[in-house]
C-alpha cells in the first residue's frame, strides 16, 4: 500500500473508533495532536524503508533513517509483526511520557491515535503481494487471500480504483450515519 492509502486507512480506523466509542471531551490541541499521531502511526511500520514517509515527516528524519533502517533489517520484517506492534506500543508510550511536560495534551488519546494508525497499517498490508511476517522472528509470511497472485500490488490499479475509493466511501458513510455525534463534538469547540 502507498502512504496515501495508509493515511486514509489510519484515519478511517480513528473515525470508526470515534463513532463507536462514547464521546470524549478534550482540548482542541489534543484533537490535532491525536490526528497527527494517527497519521504518523499509519506510516510508522514502513520505517524500515529509508525513503519512508514516516521519516520525511520528522525533522532531520533522513539522517536518523540512515542510522536506524539497517538495524531493522530489510523491508517488512519486525515492524510488520505482532512483536513489532508490541515494541511500538512500548516505545511510543515511553516517548509520549517523556514529552508530556512540554506538550500539554491528553497523551492517552494521542497514544491511542498512534497505535490505531500503526495497527491499521498491519491490517492493510496483509492484502498486499509481499505478505507480512506476523510471527517474526519465525520466518513465515502471511497474506490474505493466501495465494500471492490474488493479492494487491502496491500502488497498483486495485489499490487506486477499489481500496482507496472504498475507504473514502466508508468514511463518508460513517460521517453521514453519525452526523449528530460529529455536530455534538464540534459544538464543544465552536461557540
Ligand atoms: Zn508497510
From TrEMBL:
<feature type="transmembrane region" description="Helical">
    <location>
        <begin position="162"/>
        <end position="179"/>
    </location>
</feature>
<dbReference type="InterPro" id="IPR007404">
    <property type="entry name" value="YdjM-like"/>
</dbReference>
<protein>
    <recommendedName>
        <fullName>Hydrolase</fullName>
    </recommendedName>
</protein>
<feature type="transmembrane region" description="Helical">
    <location>
        <begin position="77"/>
        <end position="96"/>
    </location>
</feature>
<keyword id="KW-1133">Transmembrane helix</keyword>
<dbReference type="Pfam" id="PF04307">
    <property type="entry name" value="YdjM"/>
</dbReference>
<keyword id="KW-0812">Transmembrane</keyword>
<feature type="transmembrane region" description="Helical">
    <location>
        <begin position="108"/>
        <end position="127"/>
    </location>
</feature>
<keyword id="KW-0472">Membrane</keyword>
Amino acid at each position: 500500500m502507498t502512504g496515501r492509502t495508509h493515511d486514509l486507512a489510519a484515519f478511517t480506523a480513528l473515525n470508526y473508533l470515534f463513532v463507536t466509542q462514547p464521546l470524549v471531551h478534550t482540548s482542541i490541541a489534543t484533537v490535532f495532536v491525536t490526528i497527527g499521531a494517527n497519521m504518523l502511526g499509519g506510516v510508522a511500520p514502513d520505517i524500515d524503508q529509508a525513503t519512508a514517509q514516516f521519516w520525511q515527516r520528522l525533522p532531520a528524519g533522513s539522517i536518523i533513517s540512515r542510522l536506524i533502517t539497517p538495524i531493522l533489517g530489510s523491508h517488512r520484517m519486525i515492524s510488520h509483526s505482532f512483536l513489532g506492534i508490541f515494541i511500538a506500543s512500548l516505545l511510543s508510550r515511553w516517548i509520549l511520557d517523556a514529552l508530556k511536560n512540554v506538550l500539554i495534551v491528553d497523551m492517552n488519546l494521542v497514544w491511542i491515535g498512534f497505535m490505531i494508525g500503526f495497527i491499521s497499517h498491519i491490517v492493510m498490508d496483509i492484502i498486499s503481494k509481499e505478505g507480512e511476517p506476523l510471527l517474526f522472528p519465525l520466518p513465515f509470511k502471511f497474506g490474505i487471500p493466501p495465494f500471492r497472485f490474488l493479492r494487491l500490488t502496491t500502488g497498483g490499479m486495485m489499490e487506486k480504483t477499489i481500496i482507496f475509493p472504498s475507504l473514502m466511501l466508508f468514511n463518508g458513510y460513517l460521517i453521514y450515519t453519525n452526523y449528530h455525534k460529529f455536530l455534538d463534538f464540534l459544538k464543544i469547540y465552536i461557540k
